[in-house]
Every structure is written in C-alpha cells, then in structure tokens.
Amino acid sequence: MTPLATSRAASHAGDDSKAATAPRADCVADSAGGLTFDVTDPGGAGAKDTVHLLLRRRDADSAEDYVRLPLSPSADGRLRAALPSSVELAEGRWNAYAQVAGGEPRRLMPGVNDLRSLVDRAPSGSRGHVAVRIPYATKQGNLSVRSWLRAPHAEAGELGLAGAALTVHGRLYGTALTEAAYAEAVRRAEPGLVRRAEVTAEGPEFTFGLDQGPLADSGPGPWDLWLLPAGESGPRVRVARLLDDVADKKTIFTYPVVRRETPHGAVEVGPYYTNDNDLAVRVRRAGAGTETSTEGSTES
Amino acid sequence: MHISFLIHNAYGIGGTIRTTYNLANTLAQQHDVEIVSVFRHRDEPVFAPDPRVRLSHLVDTRKDSPGYEGEAPEHLRPARTFPSAEGRYAQYSALTDRRIAAHLAALDADVVVGTRPGLNVHIARQTARGPLRVGQEHLTLDSHSKELRRQLRSVYPRLDVLTTTTEADARAYSRKMRLPGVHVQALPNPVPAPGIEPADGSHKWVVAAGRLAPVKRYDLLIRAFDKVRRERPDWRLRIYGSGRQKEKLRALIDELGLYNHVFLMGAAHPIEPEWAKGSIAAVTSSLESFGMTIVEAMRCGLPVVATDCPHGPGEIIANGVDGRLVEVGNPDAIASGLLELINDDSLRHRMADAALQDSERFDPVRIAERYDAMFTGMITQGSSLGGRLRGSLHRTRGALLGGAYAVRDLGRVQTKGSTA
Predict the structure, then answer these.
(1) Chain B CA closest to residue A115
(2) pLDDT computed for residue B53 by the predictor
(3) Whole-number Cα distances in Å, B25 to B43, B165, B292
C-alpha cells in the first residue's frame, strides 16, 4: 500500500521484532487540548471485535488511572479514537496501548504526531483550568501522552537575563492578578527559605524580577518559582511553561548561567525547566556539567 | 525490467539509503526490483522496503548471527578492487571484493545500479555481459579527492550511464572526467509527499533541519536571526538536528542573548510534522550536493530561503517565485531574505503555494518515470543498433517487457499509494 521509504519507527531504540509488528498510532492535536489517535493494524482484530485505546498512567495503582477510549473504523481503514479535552487526564505520563476484545493490551508505537495546533497555544482560560496533553515517543520508542492539569496556571514566557538579575514574563490563567500579587522563590530542600519578588500586572500578563545572587549564596540546590496572584490569602500558582508542542522543555529551553563566588565556593546560577516543565532556578558548583550530571537528576 | 541496486548498507539510516528505497519501492510497482546490500549489521532495515522489493546481503556483520563474518581472516585483508581513495575503503576487504565480484558475474538483470563511487567501480569492472551498468553519484565531483577522481577516471568510462543529483554536477563530470560513450544525466533525488496537511503559513516560526555540522553554517543562520528579531521580535527560529556543533551553537545563542528566539530542538523523526509548524524554511549551507531538506520543506508548503551554494539550491528554488536564494556566507543577506518573507504575508503565502506545486516534480513517481524512461531508452538503443558491444538477449527481453506501457502506467498506479 505504501511505496515510500517511511521509517519503521519514530525512534530506532525499540528492538527490531517489536518495531516490525507493533501497532502504530498517528496523533493529531487540536487547539482546545483534544487528541485524535489513528491506529494502524492493532493485530488480530476481527470485524466484530471491540477495540479500545487504553491510556494507563505510569506507576498507576488504582482503577481511575486508566482511560479506555473506543476505537472505531474510519474511512481510510484505520481505527480512530478521540480524547476530547473534556475527558480529564490527571497530570503525569500515560502509556498508550491498543486492546482487542478482552485480550492483552499491546503497547502502541508512535507514528506521525501532528501537533501544529499546540504551537503558541493561547487558551481562553475561561474554564478556570488549563489542560495540556502532548503525545511523545519515549526513550524506548513507545507512544506516551504527557498530561498537565492546572487550575489556575501561570504560564512562563520570555525570560530576561542581565547578570544575576532574572526577569520572568508570563500570563495567568484561571484567576485574576490583584494589587497584592507577588512571586516567590522557594528553596526545594528547605521550604522555609523563601525569597519574595514584586509583580507588575497588566490584565492577565505578569512580570517579576528576581535577583539570583542571594539564591546562589545559599549554596547548591534548586529553587522553585511560585506566583501568588492575590497575595498571601490567595492561591499559590506554580510558574511553568506548558502551552506548546514540546513535551520536555529541559533540554530545549535552556538559558545562560552566571558564575558567582559564594561562602560555599564558586557556583553557577541560572533558570531552567524541570522534568515537569516547571520553572526553577538552579544553583550548582561551577564546572559540575550541564545536563546529565548526577546533581541534575536530583533537580527534577 | 529486472533492476538490481547495489548499496553499501541497506539496513542503516541515511540520505542515500532513504533515496534508494524511495526509488526502488516506486519502480517495484512496475518492475522486478532487488536491493543488494554489501553489509548487513542488523536484522531488520530501518526503512521499510515495499514487499515486492527483494532485499539481500553479501556480508553479514551481525555479531550474534550464525553467519557472522566481521572477523573472518579474508575480511581483515584490504580490498583491491574497491578504490583505496573512497571514503568507505576501510570497511571493504578482500572478502567484499570477492563477494561483490561473484554477485556481479552471476547477475541476471536488465539494469544494475551502483549507489556510491566504490560500488560503481565494481560494477564498471566486474558486471557480466548483459545488464545496463548505471553508476549513481550522490555527492559532487568536487567533493571527491584528487586521488579518488584519478581512480574513477580510469574506470568510469566502462559504465553505460552515470547519474548525478544536479545538472551542475553532470556538467562537471562531462567536462572534467572525459567519459566517451557514457550517458551522463542529472536525476534529482525523489522526495515523497508528506503524510500530513501542508503548513498554513500562520505560525511565526522559521524552521531549519539538518546535522549540526560545520558545512550547514547554522552559526550564520543564528547571527542572521539576531538581525531578524531586532526588527520582528515576534518571529522565532527552530533548528532540528543533532551533531558535534551543538555546544558551539548553544554558546552562540547565549552570547547573542537569543535564548527566547532560537531553539535547538534535537533530532526529529519524522521531520515532516516539524516543517508544518513553521512558515519559512532556512538553509544556510556552504555546500549542498542536492538539497534534500529544501525539497522536503517545499513539499510541506514552506518557501525556503537558501544560500545559493553549489550545487542543489539554485536548481530546486525558482528565485523569487517559490523561495529566495541569497548570497553564500553572508548573514546580512540571509536576514534580508528572511525579513522579505516575514514582512510580506501575501508574498510568503504566494511563494508557499508555488513551493507546494513546484516541488511535485520530485515525487518518487515522477523521478521513477524518468529513470524508467532512461533505462528503457538506453536498452532499446543498445538493441536496435544490432546490439552494442555489451548488448545482450537479456537487454532485448528487458526492452520488450519494460518498454512502452511501463512509463505510461506508472503514474496512474502510483498516485493511489498512500504516503503514510
């Protein structure tokens, strides 16, 4: 049917036999946060068999952490399932399977992920929450869906850096900024250690400046960034970057570091995105390496 | 027609491999096609051959395979037929010499196609009387060392056909190599239609894709984008690919303060959905032997701003119509080219439409038709002249089987093929 040299797998990490036989799903994202899955050859399905797309949250141990979506024949002979934005998907990583009748679920391989409508997303925020689902290929070459569900949500945009001064521009969803708004950096290892920053607001847009110098002076270890749009009495909102097509920001959205001499020795300080795409400030010993140092893994 | 491709390694990833599968799979709709891989280092090929294409290998280098020959004494002795100045020489051996020679001596085909210089040498010297001997050059003549050119010059005249990927390179071979009696023809690489909708031109992103290698000159692109964002801070740049230049490019982005505008995305497979997220593609190489990414981007509906480097870009892009050619090595010229398309939405959309249309000429069906017509023409010519020196019964039979109907029918059958 296809005369073209399409790659057998989106990732070549999977073992060969699996790559040749595993069912494959193409995903299309819509700008509202919904996903459509088109599954090719789930294997062994008769015409009357019911076939489901199964999403299972990684490390799930309760029944609520499964989502079963019916797969129905579509015009091009594949099977289609829709995950509308109205179906709640708890925050986390969801592995995707195809399941024929009552058989064993078979892990899906990623095909073509058309995520163009997720690029530069600007949802209305009118529902009071922001839901993000990004399909991606795992290191093993399988299909998973990364989900975020935030109510409210503080989306990080451009970051400004001038020496140790960090400026964060962003947009708030699901609640309003008041005169009492402020931001804070919290040392992850010592949640009692907090640095506060003033916020300026224009409608839902916010800006705050943070001197990273004092953070560095506390020694190695990350600081998490929070927005308190209504001051102490209101919600604490994690600052994160979620509204695009990039499932893992950490290695792509990277920023310069500043070297600083401290009582703990020379350190490097700079903003980064965590494994959950939350914005944080990293402080580590100068020359500790960039991405894969052991310290990096504790900074998730 | 029975068409036999000879390739270094059909089980790997790479431009020549993908191109060969695209061509072989399409030709297989009408012809008997096989791909013979000199080496096999894994069980399954990365790219999927059409079920009608037969795939075989000559030397097994899978360590866990009972047929493993990677450490056979004969494989440790240097090759004599395979030219010593060829880039892959170190991987070839007395064993590959013998296996390839035996394969070519026994080959019962109408056409044999070599896919790199060293294999073209084997084909020129060792093919039994009968098959049309076709050598493909995927790199340019200029990129071959002087010594390799010398080694090829003495052997290439024994080919029937030499193909290049550009007209400019075909002229270079005709002019510099003296190939009397060899039909030299430019045939571009096939690029399939993407399995997704083309870009709609609304996203304010410039996209580039390729290995992060010095020849791609992404440093120039990043410097050019520094100018672009001063005028249009709402536009940003994504560069897809991996490679040794990554840390250098990362440092340049940080040095210029472009970390909100320029992103190193890493490698993406498949790349088509990533093109579709952009509205302009950029190619800033100092050298493109063909320019596969230009065609890929155009097939996804992106106009390409490309340096007018040797050889590919100028033969793919109609300057000012479906893209923009700019001076090589000049970041100001690259920035101007990008800004021209960024600042004029209607021009950009017009060029995008033209890019979609003009890039259809690279569809595998169209390229396979051209190969088919060339093979048929050469074979018919050979037999109608009462058999050129190398003419044979096989070739005459091939002409009858592969002749008139094939070229005509190919397009009709092929358009049904899905691109998924």
Answers:
(1) B273
(2) 97
(3) 20, 19, 18
Shared-domain flag, residues B343 and B368: no
**Mutate which of B11, B26, B53, B196 to disrupt the A interface (most A C-beta within 10 Å)?**
B196
Is the CB of residue B298 less than 8 Å from the CB of residue B353? Answer: no
**Percentage of chain B modeled with pLDDT above 70:** 91
DSSP helix/strand/coil, A24: strand
Residue contacts between A and B (CB atoms, under 8 Å): 112
d(CA A26, CA B26): 24
Residues B176-192 pLDDT 10s: 998 989 999 999 999 99
CA distance A260 to chain B (A): 18
On whether both B31 and B167 belong to a single domain, the answer is yes
Question: Which of A10, A40, A254 is opposite residue B269, by nearest beta carbon?
Answer: A10
Cβ-based contacts of B266 with chain A (< 8 Å): 251-252
Asked if the model's pLDDT at residue B385 lies above 70, the reply is no
Please give the residue range of the domain that contains residue B402: 2-190+364-414
Would you call B408 exposed, middle or buried from its count of C-beta atoms within 10 A (0-12, 13-18, 19+)?
exposed
CB contact under 8 Å between A20 and B21, yes or no, is: no
**Which residues in chain A are closer than 8 Å to B420, comparing Cβ atoms?**
2, 6, 26, 40, 111-112
A189 and A133 together in one domain: no
Number of domains chain B contains: 2
Q: Is B235 exposed, middle or buried (0-12, 13-18, 19+ CB in 10 A)?
A: buried
Regions of chain A short of the pLDDT cut 70: 1-21, 44-47, 60-64, 288-300
Is it the case that residue B409 has pLDDT exceeding 60? no
For chain A, what is the domain count?
2
What's the pTM value of the predicted model, to 2 decimals? 0.88
Q: How many CA atoms lie within 13 Å of B242's alpha carbon, on the beta-carbon side?
A: 6
Give the model confidence (pLDDT) of A6-60 as tens digits. Answer: 444 433 333 344 445 689 999 999 988 899 999 987 776 666 778 999 999 987 6
Q: Which tokens belong to A84? A: 């509308």
